[in-house]
Amino acid sequence: MSIIQYNPTTPARRGMTSQDLSEITTKKPLKSLIKSRKQRAGRNNTGRVTVRHRGGGVKRHYRLVNHKLSPNMTLVIEEIEYDPNRSARIARVKDQFGLYHYILADTSMRKGKTVTTGSEAPVESSNRLPLANIPIGSQIYAIEINPGRGAQMVRSAGATAQLMAKEGGYAQIKLPSGEVRRFRLESTASIGMVGNIAHQNVKIGSAGRKRRMGIRPSVRGVVMNATDHPHGGGDGGRHGTGKAPRTPWGQLTLGYRTRRRKDVAKVIVKSRHDAKRKR
Predict the structure, then answer these.
(1) In this predicted model, what pLDDT tens digit does every residue of 59-93 receive, in sequence order?
(2) What pLDDT, on a 0 to 100 scale, did the predictor assign at position 264?
(3) Domain of 73?
(4) What is the C-alpha separation between 43 and 21, in angstroms, rounded?
């Protein structure tokens, strides 16, 4: 997939790029698989802003993507569609019972291709199998953390993980972050790489385009007053405050452990920070 560049008719257009939508086969989503998505501008049920820098943007419908496919399904791809709520493309598929589903589209999906699920599925691209049935060294995506829970990891555009080893009822998988983590062999995953791999090369180019995405401007803490942010205050110089970077509420932001579950450590074989520590 390529990136579309614009003629430099304005300063914003000079560096602006966008996605190539040539692989998308239809612009109309299936009405039974979408629902309305209300813009709440980052506010909770009491009206307080809990997520800053959100608001406005174009209206979008949410696509009901099925991350929990049942085993022994035979799916025929009918359309490849654009999803405004995620970086990856989605595929509209029809199962053997005549029901429609949305699934994540990988780099090998085309109209008319057949995708199968379950332990008896052949080891081919796009098929979904238990980790126990996938050969070591395979590229996989849409991985279940807990068996039967549905795909939760490696779902963004261009993402892929690698199955490294199998030992003692667990599979060791190298994630895109570089972390090696253990998963139960009963967990399922799809073979291949998530599509739209050039998503990371898109340059927004203008502030207005960001606003249409529903993202409002943010103000740096160092230009605020001391009463508004831990980075604020000073004589206007470019020197720092001498403190570690913090959020507006004083929470550390660099090097601070943010994982809430303590039991995650027992499934991590290699940390994603190991390469940085060796420098």
Answers:
(1) 999 999 999 999 999 999 999 999 999 999 999 99
(2) 84
(3) 3-199
(4) 33
Rg (CA), the chain: 22
Per-residue pLDDT tens over the stretch 196-236: 999 999 999 999 999 999 999 999 988 899 899 998 888 76
Backbone angles phi, psi at 129, to 5 degrees: -135, 165
Assess whether 76 and 186 both reside in one domain. Answer: yes
CA distances from 180 to 129, 175, 184, 189, 193 (A): 20, 6, 14, 16, 18
SS3 11: helix
Sequence-separated (6 or more) residues with CB below 8 Å from residue 70: 117
Q: Residue 71 half-sphere exposure, CB side, CA atoms within 13 Å?
A: 12
Q: Name all contacts of 116-122 with Cβ < 8 Å and 24+ positions apart.
A: 116/73, 116/74, 116/75, 117/69, 117/70, 117/71, 117/72, 117/73, 117/75, 117/188, 118/71, 118/72, 118/73, 119/71, 120/72
Q: Using alpha carbons, select from 225, 222, 253 the residue that is nearest to residue 240.
A: 222
Q: How far apart are CA 91 and CA 163, in angstroms?
A: 24
Question: What CATH number is associated with residue 239?
Answer: 4.10.950.10
| Residue 58: CB atoms within 10 Å | 10
**Separation of alpha carbons 23 and 19, rounded Å:** 10
Residue 188 sits in the same domain as residue 237: no
For 114-139, give the DSSP string: EEEBSTTS-S-TT-EEEGGGSPTT-E
